[in-house]
Amino acid sequence: MAEPFSVRVEVRGYETDSQGHLNQAVYLQYAEHARWALLRHGGIEQRDLLTRGVGPVVLETNIRYLRELRAGDAVDVECVFEWGEGKTFRVLQAIRKTDGTLSAEITGVSGMLDLDRRKLVGDPREVFKELARDPGAFGL
User: Fold this and answer.
1) Is the Cβ–Cβ distance between 5 and 38 less than 8 Å?
2) Which of 19, 20, 71, 79 is the most exposed place for a label (fewest CB within 10 A)?
């Protein structure tokens, strides 16, 4: 497994709910932002995936909310891929305040969809190795 990749985000006021907390759905947006930033960091652009005829898909997500976030908080959104055997892989993510306080843990199961066949590719690691300039960014 690679070292976690991290991207900084500042909580914006319009992302909060009536209690002043970061809206629960926005945690998923931050996680998605970090995953796409990791793809770019490793050398994979969205157009590369489309040209290859594949796209990453999220199959399952679990969020543990641990500490509230409020407007103006700066957070680091971490992302690391965990590979097993077969068609799926896990994405482990953490959202931390800049003082290190863990605000949320997000775990997900993902796969790589063949856009023509509408089926998961047999070994998503091979697609990442093929497309990435830096496969090490994905723990490969």
Assistant:
1) yes
2) 19
CA terminus-to-terminus distance, the chain: 8
Q: For domain 5-134, give the fold.
A: Thiol Ester Dehydrase; Chain A (3.10.129)
Q: 96, 84, 89, 79: which is closest to 36 by C-alpha?
A: 79
Residue 134 has pLDDT above 80, yes or no: yes
- Per domain, the residue ranges of the chain are 5-134
pLDDT digits over 31-88, tens only? 999 999 999 999 999 999 999 999 999 999 999 999 999 999 999 999 999 999 999 9
Instruction: In whole angstroms, give the CA distance from residue 122 to residue 114.
Output: 10
Write phi, then psi, for 19 (nearest 5 degrees). -95, 0
The encoded tokens of residue 34 equal 């970090």
